[in-house]
Here is the input.
Amino acid sequence: MKSPLPREAYSKNALIYKILSNSKRLEILNILKKKETSVEELLKITGLPKANLSQHLALMRHNGLVIPRRHGLNIFYRIVDPRIVEPCKILHDLRHKHLVV
Here is the structure.
Protein backbone atom coordinates (compact mmCIF):
# COMPACT_ATOMS: atom_id res chain seq x y z
CA MET A 1 0.00 0.00 0.00
CA LYS A 2 1.18 3.51 -0.83
CA SER A 3 1.08 6.54 1.49
CA PRO A 4 -1.93 8.76 0.62
CA LEU A 5 0.25 11.88 0.32
CA PRO A 6 3.85 12.54 -0.66
CA ARG A 7 6.16 12.37 2.39
CA GLU A 8 7.04 16.07 2.15
CA ALA A 9 3.35 16.92 2.58
CA TYR A 10 3.41 15.47 6.10
CA SER A 11 6.35 17.60 7.24
CA LYS A 12 4.85 20.74 5.69
CA ASN A 13 1.47 19.98 7.25
CA ALA A 14 3.13 19.40 10.63
CA LEU A 15 4.53 22.94 10.48
CA ILE A 16 1.03 24.34 9.87
CA TYR A 17 -0.35 22.20 12.72
CA LYS A 18 2.29 23.75 15.01
CA ILE A 19 1.11 27.21 14.00
CA LEU A 20 -2.51 26.19 14.58
CA SER A 21 -1.70 24.72 18.00
CA ASN A 22 -1.77 28.20 19.56
CA SER A 23 -5.19 29.17 20.95
CA LYS A 24 -4.77 32.89 20.14
CA ARG A 25 -3.86 32.13 16.53
CA LEU A 26 -6.92 29.88 16.26
CA GLU A 27 -9.05 32.70 17.67
CA ILE A 28 -7.60 35.17 15.15
CA LEU A 29 -8.19 32.79 12.25
CA ASN A 30 -11.77 32.13 13.36
CA ILE A 31 -12.40 35.89 13.50
CA LEU A 32 -10.93 36.31 10.03
CA LYS A 33 -13.02 33.41 8.74
CA LYS A 34 -16.10 35.64 8.87
CA LYS A 35 -14.65 38.75 7.22
CA GLU A 36 -11.58 40.83 6.51
CA THR A 37 -10.70 42.60 9.75
CA SER A 38 -8.46 45.52 10.69
CA VAL A 39 -5.58 45.14 13.12
CA GLU A 40 -7.32 47.64 15.43
CA GLU A 41 -10.48 45.53 15.50
CA LEU A 42 -8.46 42.35 16.09
CA LEU A 43 -6.79 44.09 19.05
CA LYS A 44 -10.20 44.94 20.55
CA ILE A 45 -11.66 41.47 20.02
CA THR A 46 -8.67 39.43 21.20
CA GLY A 47 -7.41 41.72 23.96
CA LEU A 48 -3.85 40.95 22.93
CA PRO A 49 -1.05 43.51 23.25
CA LYS A 50 -0.25 45.00 19.84
CA ALA A 51 3.24 43.44 19.77
CA ASN A 52 1.82 39.95 20.41
CA LEU A 53 -0.88 40.31 17.78
CA SER A 54 1.71 41.53 15.28
CA GLN A 55 3.90 38.50 15.96
CA HIS A 56 0.98 36.09 15.49
CA LEU A 57 -0.11 37.80 12.27
CA ALA A 58 3.46 37.86 10.92
CA LEU A 59 3.90 34.14 11.56
CA MET A 60 0.61 33.34 9.84
CA ARG A 61 1.38 35.72 6.98
CA HIS A 62 4.84 34.20 6.37
CA ASN A 63 3.29 30.73 6.28
CA GLY A 64 0.56 31.67 3.84
CA LEU A 65 -2.45 31.52 6.17
CA VAL A 66 -3.46 35.20 6.05
CA ILE A 67 -3.10 38.06 3.58
CA PRO A 68 -2.71 41.71 4.60
CA ARG A 69 -4.16 44.71 2.77
CA ARG A 70 -3.21 48.29 3.53
CA HIS A 71 -5.86 51.01 3.29
CA GLY A 72 -4.44 54.38 4.27
CA LEU A 73 -2.97 53.98 7.76
CA ASN A 74 -4.95 50.81 8.48
CA ILE A 75 -3.96 47.23 7.77
CA PHE A 76 -6.67 44.65 7.19
CA TYR A 77 -6.20 40.89 7.24
CA ARG A 78 -8.15 38.11 5.61
CA ILE A 79 -7.80 34.37 5.84
CA VAL A 80 -6.49 32.64 2.72
CA ASP A 81 -8.98 29.77 2.98
CA PRO A 82 -11.67 29.51 5.67
CA ARG A 83 -11.43 25.71 5.59
CA ILE A 84 -8.17 25.94 7.58
CA VAL A 85 -10.21 26.43 10.78
CA GLU A 86 -12.74 23.65 10.16
CA PRO A 87 -10.88 21.22 12.45
CA CYS A 88 -11.32 23.74 15.28
CA LYS A 89 -15.12 23.57 14.92
CA ILE A 90 -15.08 19.79 14.50
CA LEU A 91 -13.04 19.32 17.69
CA HIS A 92 -15.27 21.77 19.56
CA ASP A 93 -18.38 19.84 18.50
CA LEU A 94 -16.80 16.48 19.37
CA ARG A 95 -15.86 17.71 22.84
CA HIS A 96 -19.38 18.86 23.54
CA LYS A 97 -21.01 15.79 22.01
CA HIS A 98 -18.86 13.32 23.93
CA LEU A 99 -18.05 15.55 26.91
CA VAL A 100 -14.33 15.14 26.32
CA VAL A 101 -12.23 17.73 28.15
